[in-house]
Amino acid sequence: MNQHFSSAGATLPPGDVAPAGDVVRIVDLKRRFGRTPAVDGVSLTVRKGEILGIIGRSGAGKSTLIRCLNGLERPDAGQIFVEGREITGLSERDLQPLRRRIGMIFQHFNLLSAKTVEDNVALPLKIEGRSKAERLARAAELLDLVGLADKTKAYPASLSGGQKQRVGIARALAARPALLLSDEATSALDPETTRSILSLLKDINQKLGLTILLITHEMEVIRTIADRIAVLDAGRIIEEGPVWSVFADPQSEVTRSLLGGIRPQLPAAIAGRFARSGREAILRIDIAGEAARRPLLQELAAAVPGRYRLVHGGIDHIQGEPVGTLFLGAATPAGRLAEVVDFLNARGARVEVLGHVTDDV
């Protein structure tokens, strides 16, 4: 269901450019610190107007990758194209106009405490040499966009964490970037504020057609707003695809571990009652897309005799697609359990027999 590829990739010939619909294209990127590979052959594309989430555990290489993207780290090998231009060989001077095409929002906001909200937002335009009137007009426009039109003269110390991040987002948009990089932008916020910031980013993405690359270790962030996900581990992309597809059928153990907190799990009280044998099998059934739309359990009951009951789980919707995990109790005549598994697999489900219980749970 997911797309998979090797982290190795052929380097594009000199002068070649990324396709017009790609804001970013990374080809076989490598960056080492001593003998340790932080980024180890990453190839990745970020398409115009999409939200791509890059997720991984601490130390996976996420921060190094994003620093290579904005030119703060020089890769040891590979290529990075931003809006069709290869940037890894550019001088610091030539990188400056490129960086204005890339907005950045940070975990800890990085606002200047001695400047007003208005001046913080206008700072990138001041660096560009824009007139004061133009800077203030743009700051007012953006503060209205992020819901802080009444905070222009306030100072960061008087703002909540969510308000500070909204200022950070407005500042990142000041120079009308083609790409917005978000580096753990919600990890310092409480859940309610996180939801409001993610909603704002999605709204900006839709209103402005802005391409967003999210770096995060939180699967809930990915599920909420991303279109596509890439899982990074030890500097390599180990899994990539549409968010709903990866959530429905994670291929790697790392992805399954990262999803553990938000995918339904069999309650410990039930798992603790497993026996070597029992009259009822407990099945885990992962379904998505068409398989999740059909009356699967009704069809199963009609095809294979037995008693079936839903023990735990349910259906969620991600990117408009149904994605679910069901824990099913199946009491079937001797030798018929394999028929149940085959029947469900044939209809697009992924089935695992977890164990047996002797009594109802």
From TrEMBL:
InterPro entries: AAA+_ATPase, ABC_transporter-like_ATP-bd, ABC_transporter-like_CS, ACT-like_dom_sf, MetN_ABC, MetN_ABC_transporter-like, NIL_domain, P-loop_NTPase. Residues 24-259 form the ABC transporter domain. SUPFAM superfamilies: ACT-like, P-loop containing nucleoside triphosphate hydrolases. GO terms for molecular function: ATP binding. PROSITE patterns: ABC_TRANSPORTER_1, ABC_TRANSPORTER_2. Keywords: Amino-acid transport, ATP-binding, Cell membrane, Membrane, Nucleotide-binding, Translocase, Transport. The keyword Transport applies. It comes from the Bacteria. Belongs to the ABC transporter superfamily. This is D-methionine transport system ATP-binding protein.
